Amino acid sequence: MVYIYSIVVIFIVLAIMLLACAIWVKRAKNQKYGKEIFSFLIFSLLPLLGNLLITASTNYKICLLGYYVYMIGTNFMFYSITIFFATVFSTMTPFSKRLVMAIVILDSASLLANPIFGHVFSIIPVTLNGIRIYYALVSHTWHYVHLVLSYLH
């Protein structure tokens, strides 16, 4: 049980640090790419929160929610880092930015439709000595599509 509390504390400390950095960037004067950096830091909180839910709970619904928050959060985190680099290097047209956002939205909608269709992933309990430890992710076909789209950003 101490293990779980340690993990929760670590996740909370990381979340506070990310939030503090985001606030610092938002309030900084003359920050050239402040909007993009702020967006990345805020969106980075979502996968962190998802991992916290997955790691700290043995409840099926909470772990399932954690996987959704993690995956959708990574979509938006990757989107924000793509926009950051595109802004810094001036490589994206407005159409390209809208296309990337459309892909993120469609992939997130696919994830949100997973409870109905079960096409992205499912989770199964993992036990040790008869004690449930966590819920493991079982990938289905569309999870691999999600991974490809995430890595393409």
Question: Could you explain how this protein is built, in words?
Answer:
The protein is mainly α and 153 residues long. Helix content is 75%, strand content 11%. The protein contains six helices and two strands; from the N terminus they run αααααββα. Strands 1-2 form a two-stranded antiparallel ribbon. The longest helix has 30 residues, at 60-89. The model has no long low-confidence stretch (mean pLDDT 90).
Q: Quaternary arrangement of the chains shown?
A: single chain
Q: Give the C-alpha Rg.
A: 18 Å
Poorly predicted ranges (pLDDT <50, ≥5 residues)? Answer: none
End-to-end Cα distance, whole Å, is 38 Å
Shape: flat
Q: Treating each run of at least 4 consecutive H or I residues as one helix, how many helices?
A: 6
Classify the helix fraction into a percent range: over 70%
Biggest sheet descriptor: 2 strands, antiparallel
Which percent range describes the beta-strand content? 5-15%
Arrangement of strands in the largest sheet:
1-2
Q: Say how many strands there are.
A: 2
Characteristic terms for this protein:
11% strand, 153 residues, 2 strands, mainly alpha, 6 helices
Summarize the structure.
This protein is mostly helical and 153 residues long. The chain has helices spanning 2-27, 34-56, 60-89, 94-112, 114-117, 141-152, and strands spanning 121-128, 131-139. A hairpin with a 2-residue loop joins strand 1 (121-128) and strand 2.
